[in-house]
Amino acid sequence: MKIEGQAALVTGGASGLGEATARELARLGAKVAVLDRNAALAEKVAAEIGGVACVCDITDTDSVNAALDKAQAAHGPARILMNVAGIGSAKRIVGKDGNPAPLEDFVRVVNINLIGGYNMARLFAARCAKLDALDNGEKGVMLFTASVAAFDGQVGQQAYSASKGGLVGMTLPMARDLAQHAIRVCTVAPGLFATPLLLELPEPVQHSLAASIPFPPRLGKPSEFAELACHIVTNGHLNGEVIRLDGALRMAPR
Ligand SMILES: NC(=O)c1ccc[n+]([C@@H]2O[C@H](COP(=O)([O-])OP(=O)(O)OC[C@H]3O[C@@H](n4cnc5c(N)ncnc54)[C@H](O)[C@@H]3O)[C@@H](O)[C@H]2O)c1
């Protein structure tokens, strides 16, 4: 699908990988809605790229529908959904104090990363399926953001890995399901990227993380994630696939 002129939605668009994706889409001529629960940052990014900020919580259906309505009123119906919003977490299943990990933590991470992603996808897809197909036969395309932790999760990453593994697992069945509606679905599994989360770590820790990447031995740039996200939109034969973007990184147990 040609990006220029299309209305696009980016969850997590206020920061990090989502922000870079929103900026790249805008640079390529899309009309971009920044969907994020951080109102101040969403407004800032949207203003800078000539887009619209739609504050929402991806786990809350009413809030997402209101955001989709606002985006549609500003830009027309969206054909591109970039699901980038997500949170991290690290908790050992049995803590150093011998107590079991709090179940609420597992529920919270799976609820945002996996169920929130599915919620966005279903609400977007139902709207997109009603649109006319473009000249190339396509109606829409969406992307999920997993993580290499879906495959090589580290100590303490059960909740995060389970949530990202869930996104990986639903990519193919969702692509098969939405084929009848001419909507493609792909997932990117990033390795270690230089987003606010990692840039807040002490420099020696950043260096040792970077050194663990075979090549190139540096953190990924958010712009590299954004380039791949936009390539998935423009390459009409990419569908039902999970793509690792990690410089050949395979995470060690800890
Ligand atoms: N940075 C990395 O190295 C890396 C590696 C692998 C995967 N990822 C994944 O990439 C995605 C983006 O990561 P990032 O590093 O850019 O993080 P980030 O914290 O910079 O950005 C995430 C954004 O998502 C938003 N968000 C969180 N929960 C939300 C909710 N319920 N509703 C709406 N918005 C919500 C936050 O407000 C924030 O703006 C995440 O899904 C993360 O798991 C990141």
UniProtKB/TrEMBL annotation:
Record's keyword terms, sorted: Oxidoreductase
Family annotation (InterPro entries): NAD(P)-bd_dom_sf, Sc_DH/Rdtase_CS, SDR_fam
UniProt keyword annotation of Oxidoreductase present: yes
Keyword match Isomerase: no
Family annotation (SUPFAM superfamilies): NAD(P)-binding Rossmann-fold domains (SSF51735)
MF-aspect GO terms: oxidoreductase activity
Family according to the record: Belongs to the short-chain dehydrogenases/reductases (SDR) family.
Classification via PANTHER family: 17-BETA-HYDROXYSTEROID DEHYDROGENASE 14-RELATED, SHORT-CHAIN DEHYDROGENASE/REDUCTASE
Name of the protein: NAD(P)-dependent dehydrogenase (Short-subunit alcohol dehydrogenase family)
